[in-house]
Amino acid sequence: MAHQFYFNPYILDNLPAPASGFDVVQDLSDPRLRMYITSRGVKTFFVRKRVGGRDRRIIIGNYPDMDIEDARSAVPVILESASQKKPARRNKITFKKFLDLYLDRRVRRGEDSRTKLVRAIDRHLSALFEKNISEITAQDIAAVIATIRGAAIAGRMQELVQSIFNYAVDAGYVKENPAASLAKVPQNRRVRPLTRGGLVRLVDAIRAEPDTVVRAAFLMLIYGFAPKSKIFSMQWEQLDFNHYMWGDMPLSDAAVVLLRDLPQDSFWVFPGRGGSHLTDPRCAWRRVATAAGIPDLTMDDVNKFLMRRLVWTSDKEEFRMNMNSLLEEISDTEIDSNF
Questions:
Q1: Are 25 and 3 in contact (CB under 8 A)?
Q2: 178 contacts 137 by C-beta, under 8 angstroms
């Protein structure tokens, strides 16, 4: 937090410079006015303003070249100017080119997640690619969204388009967001079908799975307390059985017992085809889920069910104990339990 006091020449002239980096002080007369003091003794007035969802620090001028009263007078003018929308640009840009800018500057995702997003965009929004972004109307967007099967995907694509156009407004390529006037896609929330008794039945069904790799991977979905993408891409070099760790994450006792019994003849713990790891064994999962009497169950349902019940703690040994306690509690559940 910035140190606060009334800015006056005597105090500002005698402010000590920090040993490294910079310090920030704040004016009590107008708390919006602040000052950087660098390690070289440079003093700079500035204000903070949230513009387009991002915190911006706008430089006013250096002290003593700029007087304190002049800096105070400049604050409301600068803030009002920063709040105004940028004028629309005259140069045209296609939706596809602007989308590339949006993905580069606004989207922060891992490689796999980004690849999935781009694949979904190419599949569902390609009809807008060659249109100039300034010429796209609400009707154009509604027509594209209407072609998407599945309310959940359609809703996410509509939210994405709205976010893209919000950025286009901030960047000055359009004056208004055409997606803002569209009604939200009605969502039918999916009820996750898993219960404690269902999880016990699922474990029994998984243990009857004939494929040893798939069987072990499905059991790790329960014992590993991690999403399927992380479970299936697990590497032997990440495991430390001496300390019961998987990278930075503790391993439950059940996970350690399971993993120690697996052959370590591949780079991957759960090898798949073509020298890669197991990816998405949907047919095998459908088989075990049906055998457990939960045909609509997904692999993500298992992780979400467990993580909602797992007590989180920053202490890794305590966290591991919480994993073991939850698995023991579930294993003691009667098969026909409905809670």
A1: yes
A2: yes
The helix or strand, by DSSP H or E, that contains position 75, with its residue range, turns out to be helix 68-83
**Predicted model pTM:** 0.51
φ/ψ of 324, rounded to 5, equals -60, -40
Side chain identity at residue 121, one-letter code: I
110, 118 contact by CB (below 8 A): no
CATH assignment of the domain containing 47: 3.30.160.390
Shared-domain flag, residues 131 and 69: no
**77 and 109, same domain (yes or no):** no
Six-digit token string for 208: 């009857």
From CA 94, how far away is CA 132, in angstroms rounded?
4
**H or E element in which residue 51 lies:** strand 43-51
Average pLDDT over residues 114-139: 93
Q: Which CATH number characterizes residue 232's domain?
A: 1.10.443
Q: Using CA atoms, how far apart are residues 308 and 134, in angstroms rounded to an integer?
A: 44
> Does the residue 336 lie in any domain?
no
In a domain, 339, yes or no: no
Q: Which domain holds residue 105?
A: 95-181
Q: State the sign of the Cα–Cα–Cα–Cα dihedral 259, 263, 265, 271.
A: negative
Task: Summarize pLDDT for 320-334 with one digit per residue, the tens.
Answer: 999 999 999 988 764
Are the C-beta atoms of residues 197 and 335 closer than 8 Å to each other? yes
**What's the domain count of the chain?**
3
Burial tier of 294 (Cβ tally within 10 Å: 0-12, 13-18, 19+): buried
Final residue in a domain of this structure, among 83, 109, 136 = 83
